[in-house]
Amino acid sequence: MAKMTLEDLRKLREEKKRALNKRDIEGKNVQIIVGMGTCGLAAGAKDALDSFLKTIDENNLDNVAVTQTGCMGLCYVEPTVEVIVEGMPNVIYGNVDAAIAARIVKEHVMNKQMVSEYVFDRPAADIINDGGR
Amino acid sequence: MAIKNYILICGGTACESSRADDIYKNLIAECASQGVSDDVQIVKTGCFGFCEQGPIVKILPEDSFYVQVKPEDAKELVSEHIVKGREVTRLLYDKNKSKKHAKVEDIQFYQKQFRIVLRNCGFINPENIDEYIAREGYAALEKALFNMTPDDVIGELKTAGIRGRGGAGFPTWMKWNFTKQVENDTKYVVCNADEGDPGAYMDRSTLEGDPHSILEAMTIAGYTCGARQGYIYIRAEYPLAIKRLEIAMQQARDYGLLGEDILGSGFSFDIEIRLGAGAFVCGEETALLASIEGERGMPRPRPPFPAVKGLWGQPTVINNVETWANIPMIILKGGDWFSKIGTEDSKGTKVFALTGKIRNSGLVEVPMGTTLREIIFDIGGGIANDKEFKAVQTGGPSGGVITKADLDTPIDYGSLMGLGSMMGSGGMIVMDEDDCIVDVTKFYLGFSVDESCGKCSPCRIGGRSLYNILDKITKGEGEMEDLEQMKSIGQAMKKASLCGLGQTAPNPILSTIHYFEDEYLAHIKDKRCPAGKCKELISFNILADKCIGCTACARKCPVGAITGERRQLHRIDPELCIKCGVCLETCKFGAIYVR
Question: What pTM, to 2 d.p., does this model score?
Answer without folding.
Answer: 0.84
